[in-house]
Amino acid sequence: MRVWPVVVLALVSFQGVQGQNPIRLKAREIDPRVPVRAAPPERNGGGPRHYIVQFRSYPGPELRQELARRDILVLAYVPEWALMVSGEAPLDLAGLEVTWSGTLEASDKLSPALETEPAGAYLTIFHPDVDMEAARAMVRGLGFEVLENPDLGAARLLVTGARERLGGLAE
Predict the structure, then answer these.
(1) The pairing of beta strand 23-24 with beta strand 49-55
(2) Which of 107, 86, 93, 85 has the alpha carbon at shortest distance from 25?
(3) Tens digits of per-residue pLDDT, 63-96?
(4) Are the CB atoms for 97 and 55 separated by under 8 Å?
(5) 3-state SS of the chain?
(6) Long-range pairs, 144-153, Cβ under 8 A, ≥24
(7) pTM assigned to the model
(8) Which end of the chain has fewer CB atoms within 10 angstroms, the N or the C?
(9) What tens digit of pLDDT does each residue of 112-139 get?
(10) C-beta atoms surrounding 71 within 10 Å
């Protein structure tokens, strides 16, 4: 009979550390124990911003519905127990057992392969809520040329231009 309390304690302890897992991005891992930096300055034009929000446990359908009710658009799942979302600042996350939230740095959006791959054409992938006509205008405004390719699918552009300008696309 003494085994039962130990098993319950182990399960409770496991639930408590789930939200402490790192958020896994291609370029780095985010440690949710480290406080989030100050929010970046507002972009010209305002509008919705993109955030990563990590929860204490897997963000299932009920949580996603609650986010939608709060006008927060879920864009993608991000390992571990996080979502990429879009919404007006500040996000209303009260009562949702959030363990970390913040915006991506420009360097998080650039593949580490860019450091070793030869320059040439670049596949740019935009969030699904981005207006692609506005994306094309931004790409061209930064000096890139769009190579039309209907096989790329939605929210993707193949571009050519100077590698050093890629950071401007990621901001």
Answers:
(1) unpaired
(2) 107
(3) 999 999 999 999 999 988 999 999 998 999 999 9
(4) yes
(5) CCHHHHHHHHHHHHHHHHCCCCEECCCCEECCCCCCCCCCCCCCCCCCEEEEEEECCCCCHHHHHHHHHCCCEEEEEECCCEEEEEECCCCCCCCCCEEEEECCCHHHHCCHHHHCCCCCEEEEECCCCCCHHHHHHHHHHCCCEEECCHHHCCCEEEEECCHHHHHHHHC
(6) 144/169, 147/121, 152/123
(7) 0.73
(8) N
(9) 888 887 778 999 999 888 999 999 999 9
(10) 12
Amino acid at 135: A
Quick check: 22 and 10 in contact, CB under 8 A?
A: no
Length of the chain: 171
Peptide bond into 48 cis (omega under 30): no
Q: Locate 113 and state its tokens.
A: 């392969």
- What sign does the dihedral 154-160-163-164 (CA atoms) show? negative
Task: At 49, list the tokens.
Answer: 């911003």
